[in-house]
Specification:
Length: about 400
């Protein structure tokens, strides 16, 4: 048991991961204290969270949102200081008395604040996989240089972390690790005829069979870009070459991933598909705490199935392996183009099966560059967004 309460900053508090984080935190008032919360624009929900957790700071995306939040908080007698904008977001990510930062903003928008937490040497609970995908070398260098601690929240990476040796030194062979087996549910379209994928709707794409998540990651799960991003994430987190990361479709989402050792042993982490498990694991690490998750009932589940992913059905997964092999700015381009394409699909301006086409176009039309500093990463991000927007417009559905 820790003696002092852990002071926590939650970036992206109003999202799916943010809400699950605060649910776990609320079960352990003796262990955790909330120092700051952020949200882009769901002010009502953020106001309610401020009322419950009494953070010192709350950061929102715009001055208008800050004004609304401040007026809601005045009514409830809450003393939280309300701030707005990117600088304030980076500011709460490196508060001097913060012990841990939950990085749960979706997409590239999370990169700068998460990097700020790394530079300040914080314990980072990383859900925002896009930040690591875009800027792997820059991000990992800041972690190491500043002795920050990086704990994965993504359920697969959290499972791998739990299945690796405790003293894992980011060197596969000296740890006797042969391969990482990354499980994937296959999403809602695992069995949909490929010819129907042109007509699926955002509602169908967001109806994930096992997990309730934000809309962007739900679409990524349906294209399996999510698994592609996770292959890249695993590469950076655990220093594993792509040929040693195998994706296995496991529709029940009970085995969250596995590590295979040289002697043939395969160590897995199992659990119900509930993000509060990896969140509680990372929050309390190395202790174990109650997360509010129902016990796993294997007899009710009955059987666990596995199959190989079909790269023709899921070209996004193939593209992610390709950009990982290419390195440099290619992962940043893929990530940015994917964000634009997914947004267009969610707004019904782009057909689902054109998401990988838009990404390919962005990859083809940006010059490859080494990406060992943040400026190059951000340039690649901006260039890819521009090309992807054009590609979307060229293929956009008539209104
Ligand atoms: P979400 O859409 O539910 O929530 C996103 C949060 O980020 C919200 O609080 C929102 O206000 C904030 N946000 C959005 N745009 C922003 C911007 N431009 N600037 C600042 N803040 C912004 O998303 P989520 O499902 O909670 O996912 C968050 C991250 O966690 C993603 O990177 C996702 O890939 C990862 N993740 C999520 C799950 C899950 O089960 N939901 C699982 C694994 C990993
Ligand atoms: Mg995951």
């Amino acid at each position: 048991m820790t003696t002092r309460r852990q002071r926590l900053v939650v970036l992206g508090a109003t999202g799916s991961i943010g809400v699950s984080t605060l649910d776990v935190v609320s079960r352990h008032p003796d262990r955790f204290e909330v120092l700051a919360l952020s949200a882009q624009n769901r002010v009502d929900r953020l106001a309610e969270q401020c009322g419950r957790f009494k953070p010192r700071f709350a950061v929102v995306g715009s001055a208008a949102a800050a004004e609304r939040l401040a007026s809601l908080l005045r009514r409830s007698d809450c003393e939280t200081t309300v701030l707005a904008g990117a600088e304030a977001l980076e500011g709460i990510a490196c508060l001097a008395d913060a012990d841990a930062v939950m990085a749960a903003i979706v997409g590239a928008a999370g990169l700068r604040p998460t990097l700020a937490a790394a530079r300040a040497g914080k314990k980072i609970l990383l859900a925002n996989k896009e930040a690591l995908v875009m800027a792997g070398p820059v991000f990992m260098a800041e972690i190491q240089r500043n002795n920050a601690i990086l704990l994965p929240i993504d359920s697969e990476h959290n499972a791998i972390y739990q299945s690796l040796p405790r003293d894992y030194s980011c060197d596969l062979s000296s740890s006797g690790v042969r391969r990482i087996l990354l499980t994937a549910s296959g999403g809602p379209f695992r069995r949909t005829p490929v010819s129907d994928l042109a007509h699926v709707t955002p509602e169908q794409a967001c109806a994930h069979p096992n997990w309730a998540m934000g809309r962007k990651i739900s679409v990524d799960s349906a294209t399996m870009m999510n698994k592609g991003l996770e292959v890249i994430e695993a590469h950076w987190l655990f220093n594993v070459p792509p040929e040693r990361i195998e994706v296995v479709i496991h529709p029940q989402s009970v085995i969250h991933s596995m590590v295979e050792y040289a002697d043939g042993s395969v160590i897995a982490q199992l659990g119900n598909p509930d993000m509060r498990t990896p969140i509680a694991h990372a929050l309390a690490h190395p202790d174990r705490i109650e997360a509010g998750v129902a016990p796993l009932d294997l007899c009710r589940i009955g059987s666990l199935d596995f199959e190989r992913p079909d790269m023709d059905r899921f070209p996004c997964l193939r593209l992610a392996y390709e950009v990982l092999a290419r390195g440099g700015n290619a992962p940043a381009v893929l990530n940015a183009a994917n964000e634009i394409a997914v947004e267009a699909f969610l707004e019904r301006r782009l057909a689902f099966d054109l998401i990988p086409i838009v990404i390919e176009q962005a990859l083809r039309n940006t010059a490859w560059m080494k990406a060992d500093n943040l400026d190059i990463v951000m340039e690649a991000d901006a260039a890819a967004r521009k090309i992807a927007r054009k590609a979307v417009d060229a293929r956009a559905r008539p209104a």
